[in-house]
Design brief:
The protein has helices spanning 2-7, 11-40, 44-76, 83-96, 98-110, 113-139. The chain is mostly helical. The protein is elongated.
Length: 151
């Protein structure tokens, strides 16, 4: 996250991350859509279209809202980060958790509930861990570094 902040964060890149995460969310749901379509005899095209609208349009908006809430929370604790940096931190955490989300989507369509639960918990923990690290880096950049005195 520090490297991204040093280079400079642009809103276009953050929006791309949001849409990429939405597209990967759609891909992770495809096995579930196929299973649901065969079990319920619904059209796979209709189910895919509904999931596309949800994943590509609604999911990024929800994550933008989550980033806004985190920005206000960090500001309440005297965080020094900007809104664009908070949004990048949230979306970067989402992008980092994409491989786990894809595995979780596959597990969800073929495995028993216990494995689905474990995969979901692992995905959530990875997202939360990266998000916490990113928000700490953005809002409290000197909190983890050892302070030295110049005499």
């Amino acid at each position: 996250m520090r490297k991204q902040m040093d280079v400079g964060i642009r809103e276009e890149q953050t929006l791309f991350y949001a849409l990429f995460f939405g597209a990967m969310h759609l891909v992770s749901q495809m096995p579930n859509i196929a299973v649901k379509a065969t079990k319920t005899e619904q059209s796979i095209a209709n189910l895919t279209a509904m999931q596309f609208a949800s994943s590509v349009f609604i999911t990024p908006l929800v994550i933008y809202g989550i980033a806004l809430v985190f920005h206000f929370i960090m500001r309440a604790f005297n965080g020094a980060g900007l809104g664009v940096q908070t949004r990048r931190a949230v979306f970067w955490a989402a992008i980092v958790s994409v491989p786990f989300m894809l595995i979780s989507g596959i597990v969800n369509s073929v495995a028993p509930f216990y494995y689905v639960l474990v995969a979901g918990v692992i995905t959530t923990l990875v997202f939360a861990w990266v998000l916490a690290a990113n928000l700490t880096e953005v809002h409290f950049p000197n909190s983890g570094k050892k302070q030295t005195k110049n005499i």
